[in-house]
Amino acid sequence: MTDGRVTAVSRSATHTFGKTTEPVIRLLAGLGVEGDAHLGVTVKHRSRVAQDPTQPNLRQVHLIQAELHDELRAAGFSVAAGELGENVTTRGVDLLGLPVGTLLGLGREAVVKVTGLRNPCGQIEGFQRGLLKQVVGRDENGEPVRRAGVMGVVVAGGEVRPGDPIEVERPSPPHRRLDRV
């Protein structure tokens, strides 16, 4: 059963805030998005490399719901696919509601295992002032609510294109809620 669709795919060979949309990206098992700055077995995010460059890369692929872009545009922000740093923009899948370990089948072959939530940094304010407050809020207990997408690792490689179906396979219970990675 198809749970949603890929609406855009993006990558950047350098550590830029946004990524360029492409007609197709190739996911490489255990590594990430071919040609993307975050490709690799070990962590590539600059602040995490500074802490410990041998950490496993749990952030090989960044996915964001197109529904978030819709909400941001309705709130007066100008946001397009890839501009928030995501590799895969989706529609029709509640990414933020998935448990850790969910498998996302993207297109015919690629599979990404969800590892956690993206923790947006202050760079988002440099992109558009006020945007950080839109993607990180607080719940009734004062705990952070992160809405800037999910991160994952590639368990099966393959090409991913806009229009590709997304199959969602949740892990066996008990489920662990997503936390920042």
Automatic annotation (TrEMBL):
Q: Which sequence ranges form a coiled-coil region, renumbered to this chain?
A: none
Where in this chain does the record put each MOSC domain?
A: 20-169
**Location of the region described as Disordered in the Swiss-Prot/TrEMBL record:** 162-181
Which ranges are annotated Basic and acidic residues under compositional bias?
A: 162-172
One of the Pfam families matching this protein, by short name: MOSC
Q: Which InterPro entries does this UniProt record tie to the protein?
A: MoCF_Sase_C, MOSC_domain, Pyrv_Knase-like_insert_dom_sf
| PROSITE patterns in the cross-refs | MOSC
Question: What PANTHER family does this protein's entry cite?
Answer: METAL-SULFUR CLUSTER BIOSYNTHESIS PROTEINS YUAD-RELATED, MOSC DOMAIN-CONTAINING PROTEIN
Specify the protein name.
MOSC domain-containing protein
**From which source organism is this entry?**
Streptosporangium amethystogenes subsp. fukuiense
